Amino acid sequence: MRSTVSQDWSAKTTAWKQSGMSLAAWCRENSESYYWFRYWRKRLAVPVSGRFLELTLPDAPISLECNGILVHVAKGFDPDLLSDILSLLKKG
User: What NCBIfam families would the database entry show (predicted)?
Assistant: First the structure.
């Protein structure tokens, strides 16, 4: 039964995203509890910790901060060096 409930809420989440409506409006229109929807949306969310996202850097330098560690990245940086630094920070 648990997988069926998860599948139902997963389908509802997809339908809401495709509707372009606010969550509250979608729930009202579909007679769903806003609070239950938020609960299931959070429960079904895939954690993204430990993954890297591709960034398009602006011309100006940027700063990345994670767990109190600040890394400044300027245009023309060495991607391999940044990857090594982030790997070291992840281990620490």
Answer: IS66_ISAeme5_TnpA
Q: Are 64 and 71 in contact (CB under 8 A)?
A: yes
Alpha helices in the chain (DSSP H): 2-19, 23-29, 34-44, 79-91
Burial class (CB in 10 A: 0-12, 13-18, 19+), 13: middle
Q: Is the separation of the CB atoms in 13 and 41 below 8 Å?
A: yes
Output the six-digit token pair for 40. 């299931």
Q: Domain locations in the chain?
A: 2-44, 49-92
| Confidence grade of residue 58 (pLDDT, cut at 50, 70, 90) | low
Its pTM surpasses 0.70: no
